[in-house]
């Protein structure tokens, strides 16, 4: 995975990145107020090293930033299979520009605070690098509501620096979780196997 960048101060997103992930080459426009504007962050890199996309998948990039995960998936299985959401208006605008830049303009990109403004269900994969909040309110929403938005057999994949809370929470909701430790990050994969949470008192 490589990157290089140059600046164009006249653009809304003045930084241009060239990023290669597992042999797929992409271009991105970013700005200083977006997450990891200088290149692919280590957590997302760890997550993408452990996930594969297949024809027939319905993928949600949850908290998409300027669009690396969703665009990477779309380059493999097609834009029609991908939804990207972020609560930040600038991130949504950057993702739309980057989808066009990478030849996948038909990705559905929605401004939404988590799942609150998103009505779709039956995803086979939901991927997220959630923000680190002391009260865990954002990942709690992602995990609990993500369970309900997955198809049976669908998987929620999160990457974080923290382990114990995520392990316990995902196991309580999903009934189990697989954890990979990659370059100092934990990649959590949980599969929806039933219509209700594994533990009612979460």
Summarize the structure.
The chain is of the alpha/beta class and 202 residues long.
Proportion of residues in β-strands? 25-35%
Q: Which whole number gives the mean pLDDT?
A: 92
Largest sheet: 7 strands, mixed
Taking pLDDT < 50 over at least 5 consecutive residues as the criterion, the unreliable ranges are: 2-10
N-C termini distance: 39 Å
**What's the arrangement of strands in the largest beta sheet?**
6-5-4-7-8-10-9
Order of helices and strands: EEEHEHEHEEHEHEE
Number of strands: 10
| Rg measurement, Å | 16 Å
CATH architecture: 3-Layer(aba) Sandwich
- The assigned structural class equals alpha/beta
CATH superfamily grouping:
Vaccinia Virus protein VP39
**Individual helix count:** 5
The CATH topology name reads Rossmann fold
Shape: globular
* Domain tally: 1
CATH class: Alpha Beta
Q: Helicity range of the residues?
A: 25-40%
Word description of this protein:
With 202 residues, this protein is of the alpha/beta class. It has a single domain (41-191), classed as 3-Layer(aba) Sandwich (Rossmann fold), CATH 3.40.50.150. It has five helices and ten strands; from the N terminus they run βββαβαβαββαβαββ. Strands 6-5-4-7-8-10-9 form a seven-stranded mixed sheet, sandwiched between helices. Strands 1-2-3 form a three-stranded antiparallel sheet. The protein starts with a strand and ends in an 11-residue tail after the last strand. The relative contact order is 0.14. Mean pLDDT is 92; it is low at 2-10.
